[in-house]
Amino acid sequence: MSGGAGGDWPLWEVFVRAKAGLSHRHVGSVHAPDAELALRHARDTYTRRGEGVSLWVVPSAEIVASDPDEAGPLFEPAQDKIYRHPTFYDIPDEVKHI
Amino acid sequence: MASLPPIDVPKGATGAGAFDAPTAGEADAARFDYLLRLGDDALILGQRLGEWCGHAPALEVDLSLTNVALDLVGQATHLLGAAGDADQLAFHRDVLDFRNCLLVEQPNGDFGRTIARQLLFSTWQHLLYQRLADSSDTFLREIAAKAVKEVAYHREIASEWTVRLGDGTDESAQRMRVGLDWCWRFVPELFEVDELLEGLIARGIAADPRAFEDEYRSAIGTVLADAKLEVPAEQRPILGGRRGHHSEHLGHLLAAMQFLPRTYPDAKW
Amino acid sequence: MYTTELGKSATVKSLEDPKLLEAFEARVAADEFIEPKDWMPEAYRRTLVRQVSQHAHSEIVGMLPEGNWISRAPSLRRKAILLAKVQDEAGHGLYLYCAAETLGTSRDEMIEALHSGKAKYSTIFNYPTLTWADIGAIGWLVDGAAIMNQVPLQRTSYGPYARAMVRVCKEESFHQRQGYEIMIAMAGGTPEQKRMAQDALNRWWWPSLMMFGPPDEDSPNTAQSMRWRIKRDTNDELRQKFVDITVPQADFIDLKVPDADLKWNEAKNNGAGGYDFGEVDWEEFYAVVRGEGPVAKERMAARRAAWDDGAWVREAAVAHEEKRRARAAA
Fold first, then answer.
1. CB–CB contact C316 B172 (8 Å)
2. Is the pLDDT of residue A6 over 60?
3. Rounded CA separation C134/C198 (Å)
4. C302 touches chain B (CB under 8 A)
5. SS3 B225
6. Which of A23, B203, B240, C52 could be a cystine partner for B3, CB 3.0 to 4.6 Å?
């Protein structure tokens, strides 16, 4: 077993919450052998300039992603359902609070 | 336990070196010395950790070690700055005037020895700064309150790596054992209380390390147990750092660190 | 970042569906981003793996010339700044390795390629740092050149690469400033300091110009790279821009650029004016690309040692996690 194969650390995706009230956002990845060190590495890599108050790390292999080839069937049908948007509806200006 | 015999001061000499406290009066001199002890601990360990930059076992580990180094250099800058001119103190004292403990000046060795040194030092430094937050000295109270968070992180990282190396492979366990064995003789110095420190403790300025020695040993014992490692057998304590009697390593470290300011004394950088 | 790999043939004889190819080129031309798992031409994937991994290797190897002076930084402030800068470079390498991995390679594979000599890194890091002034010169000139290459890459077509570059550019802005600050202090300091500063400029000037790659006439794949938004300006355009920006900075601190042919030319840049400058020693450039740079062996030896000596640490961490899982499952 080479130093590589035996010592290959899995990849983790890192999400940072910049401050209370905001959502976590994906900022990149780190390698780590386990969850505890993944948090440490994420903290040392992505928050050196005070970028966050909370960190999530997820093994990259655990991310379930939509298939880009299916982007059409998944996302296009929503585009012509314009009646889901308030601007579709014509209410006279004199009517208040609606 | 005694270190080397005291230096014979020639007749007529004041016994004071160029870097003794500028104001007369024992009280200030003692505080000055204490600031140097704490500041030099941070400076020398920061210098050692900086040597890993670009050479760590993984990029992420490089970042971790450098973060610790940066925290320590920052602490040193504040502590030495409170004692006098931080750069003057860092770059123009010779070994007899350095006050760091022997543990921090030990060469990095392999990653096992580096982690052993970090575990033993940061656990102590964490407990010390927790107590310094109650110091009667305003400056020490403030710096302790800030530094304790950094040092808590150093202690955690060192503990986590100790466990992974101790309870990893046979090779890593052996290297961890060897590293701990190297450093163990320097632990008693962390709890040494000389006359100077007694005085500062009595004045409420310094924290008494004897008060947290049991907690320290228990904490180290717990981490080593998690790491499936045995606590090293007691060794004869090696002392002297607090009095300027260092190991052979400090001279070499300072020769590199101080080269530029000493060679170009008029230069500003 | 100039990559020597762009010179290599990036056209693949493939049976790729022309409709997919057309759709891909249209997306890229429309300034859209290609994300991992999107269909992409094999040539594009290969070019990107080479470019992104070479960029990552450059950051990591780039830690060494500056790391050489951490222990000897002449003040506490300079020591902290240099530690932070070199640490940023490790982080940049990390972002870029992770971006390259999304294209179907692994960090281990990329590192193996670097250590075996198969993969390249920026030629500039094969030069030695001889005095503290070199640290100033590197920040000023090398980071300056890197910034010029990197700013356009923030809109490069491959999403993970573009996002990594946004982070890199944000962090890079202090790198150049700290370097120039060192040059200001030294060029305006004692006679010995001034001598070191001029000497550093003498040694780092031409290698910095080489960072922009071979002349345009020797860069056959420029058109394709520009279409794929991997490049926005040509090598010569960037080199000219760098000279025009940097010469006044040297003048400001009273240092002389080591080029006897350097001359202001009013007609240049469509009448805006610019500098005529001497010919780069292309023989030296290609020799360094081939791996014959002054400290190429030292750089590779250091990286190999760090990786090989650290293998037991990485393995221990993996072994520990396996033990932990086994205990949890039991």
1. yes
2. no
3. 10
4. yes
5. helix
6. B240
CB C125 within 8 A of CB C116: no
Task: Place C114 in a pLDDT band, splitting at 50, 70 and 90.
Answer: very high
- Using CB atoms, list chains with 3+ pairs below 8 Å to chain C: A, B
Q: How far apart are CA C54 and CA B126, in angstroms?
A: 41
Section B254-266 average pLDDT: 98
SS3 (DSSP) at B54:
coil
CB contacts, 8 Å: B67 with chain A: 44, 48
Please check the confidence at residue A84 and state whether its pLDDT lies above 90: no
Average the pLDDT over each of A90-94, B20-24, B212-216, C101-105 and give the range with the smallest value.
B20-24
Check A68 against C87: CB less than 8 A apart. Answer: no
Q: Tens digits of per-residue pLDDT, C62-81?
A: 999 999 999 999 999 999 99
The 3-class secondary structure across chain C, one letter per residue, is: CCCHHHHCCCCCCCCCCHHHHHHHHHHHHCCCCECCCCCCCHHHHHHHHHHHHHHHHHHHHHHHHHHCCHHHCCCHHHHHHHHHHHHHHHHHHHHHHHHHHCCCCCHHHHHHHHHHCCCCCCHHHHCCCCCHHHHHHHHHHHHHHHHHHHHHHCCCCEHHHHHHHHHHHHHHHHHHHHHHHHHHHHHCCCHHHHHHHHHHHHHHHHHHHHCCCCCHHHCCCHHHHHHCCCCCCCHHHHHHHHHHHHHHHHHHCCCCCCCCCCEEECCCCCCCCEEECCCCCHHHHHHHHHHHCCCHHHHHHHHHHHHHHCHHHHHHHHHHHHHHHHHHHC
Give the pLDDT score at B24: 42
Q: Do C93 and B59 make contact, defined as CB atoms within 8 angstroms? A: yes
Residue of chain B whose Cα is closest to the Cα of C316: B168
**Residue B130: what pLDDT?**
98
The type of residue at C9 is S
User: Residues 6 or more apart from B162 whose CB is under 8 A from it?
Assistant: B115, B116, B119, B176, B223, B224, B227, B229
Q: In C, which residues are within 8 Å of A45 by CB distance?
A: 91, 94
**Pair of tokens at residue C17:** 């569906």
Mean pLDDT (chain B) is: 93
The residues near C164 (Cβ < 8 Å, ≥ 6 apart) are: A28, C92, C95, C96, C98, C99
DSSP state of B14: -
**Yes or no, beta carbons of C313 and B261 under 8 Å apart:** no
